[in-house]
Amino acid sequence: MARSREYRSKARIYADILRCIVKHGGRVGPTRILYCANLSYDRLMRHLTRLMELGLVEEAKDGDRTLYGITNRGVEFLKEFAKVERFAKAFGITI
Amino acid sequence: MPVGLIVFMELVGAFISFLIGYYAMRAYRASSSRELLLLYYGFILLGLGMCLRAATVGYLILMRVFEVYPPLVKSIVEFAGVIYSAMQVVAYVLFVAMYVLQSKRTGEGEVAFAAFPVLYFSFFNPFLELVAVVLLGLVTVQSFINWSLRRSGESFLVFLGFGFMLLSHMLLLFIAVENSLLFFGQLAQLAGFLCLLAMLVKVSRGGEE
User: Fold this and answer.
1) Which ranges constitute the DSSP H helices of B32-70?
2) Contact B98 A12 (CB under 8 A)
3) Spans of all domains in chain A
4) Which B residues 96-155 touch A at CB under 8 Å?
5) Is B157 touching A (CB cutoff 8 A)?
6) Min CA distance, A23 vs chain B (Å)?
7) Cα dihedral angle (B168, B33, B29, A20), rounded to 10 degrees?
């Protein structure tokens, strides 16, 4: 029997994107995020736009390339999300 | 058992319960997970129930201080006991619902004051205690499975917390047979909430895993 796809909340997707940016040095291109956050290009761009509106991610230009970096607010969000995730996991809840 | 100690234990338990409820609400706001909302309502109900229990003991203490013994006092204590037990049962139903929702979503499988303690025993309704034991038993088994899968300190503390609360209800179920079980029941309940508090402290101190 095929396993159902793992459910990810919006907050979890945001955290996955931000963790991906941190993992790759704090500034990274969309293709790399696309692979490590396991998202389609359209969905990634939609989430990145929202993350920039929230002030968690900032856009930077490196020649022709567009890079995305994590802001201080983004780092704070990640810390808070890690606590929430550990709390939920302690009760067996996946968020 | 000193009555002041009962009130103290209940209020500590209620405080921890509200704290966990508050944390669950914060987590719900951050994640929009319905399971966390159920956890929030469950712990808020448990906290309110323990406040009611502390208020009942406080009421009985005031009766002794002012030497007033209203004729309906036994009925009032019994009624408060039923409300308390019902609140607990609803809280445990919410915890069970939380685990059901989670498994669906993830696809995994104390009238004279000399008789104060005797009167307080009428607070406990054996039938509702039994329902609470069954429901909390399910919650404890689920938290054990969660701990055996994750092997994290936090999930072990949650398992211990629910385990002690289950032990507390099992002891309170038999207080009609042995009065001293009230003390041990209260102690087990306090131990359960202290485990949950320890989990909360561990979670809020830790950062990324």
Assistant:
1) 34-66
2) no
3) 10-90
4) 98-99, 102, 105-107, 142-143, 145-146, 150, 152, 154-155
5) yes
6) 12
7) 120
The amino acid occupying position B8 is F
Nearest to B102 among A10, A87, A93 (CB): A93
Exposure b/e, A14-51, CB count within 10 A at least 16 = b: bbbbbbbbbeeeeebebeebbebbebeeeebeebbeeb
Which pTM value belongs to this model? Answer: 0.75
Residue range A15-43: average pLDDT?
Answer: 91
Q: Between chains, do A94 and B199 touch, taking CB under 8 Å as contact? A: no
Which residues in A lie closer than 8 A to residue B27 (C-beta atoms)?
Answer: 84, 87-88, 95
Confidence bin at B207 (pLDDT 50/70/90): low
Terminal CA-to-CA distance of chain B, rounded, Å?
Answer: 43
Instruction: Extract the tokens encoding B127.
Output: 């039938």
Retrieve residue A34's tokens. Answer: 């696309």
Beta bridge mates, A61? A66
pLDDT in tens, B18-66: 999 999 999 998 888 889 999 999 999 999 999 998 888 888 888 878 8
Pairwise CA distance, residues A60 & A75, whole Å: 17
Q: Do B206 and A90 touch (CB under 8 A)?
A: no
Is the Cβ of B22 closer than 8 Å to some Cβ of chain A? no
If DSSP codes are grouped into helix, strand and coil, which group holds residue B208? Answer: coil
CATH number of the structural domain A10-90: 1.10.10.10
Q: Does B29 touch chain A (CB under 8 A)?
A: no
